[in-house]
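> run fold XRE family transcriptional regulator
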Amino acid sequence: MATSVGQRLAALRAEHDLTLATLSEMTGISKSTLSRLETDQRKPTLELLLPLSRTYQVSLDDLVGAPEVGDPRVTMKPRELSHGRVGIPLTRSIGPLQAWKMIIKDTELHEPRVHEGYEWFYVLSGRIKLRIGDKEVVLRAGEVAEFDCRQPHALGSADGNPAEIISLFGKQGERIHTRAAPPKQS
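> ok
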């Protein structure tokens, strides 16, 4: 059975051999509030838990019994994609926002595609040729592009050498903003 926050607070007070009155003086929290916290009759708030955490010298996670965090690493298995590309997923699952590292080897721009969503990408290395509608631009390492995927778009290596990008794609069409440098003043 899981221990409640109130039970943990009562156990810590007993472990430190403190009375409610002494703990109240140490934390500035009234005796009645402390009593209600320990009996789970009062919802613990950050404002109440912080002084208790400091007094008992325990982390907030320990105080509230937060579950341990698992291994946050994402297993990255490269996938062969169309048009001479390799995609390495940087997010665990397909969701509203996906992150990929992509290696783009092809120089020929494929047939422009149109689909729902919004894409943002950052060029890690190499040069990328991006066509959106009738416009074509070349992006170098350190440059960023963002666009609505409902516009016809295609990309490839600009010079025949592999290029690497980090791509964020949101199917819901949310825009992702970046600002590499402040806007130039006129």
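Helices lie at 5-15, 20-27, 31-38, 46-56, 60-64.
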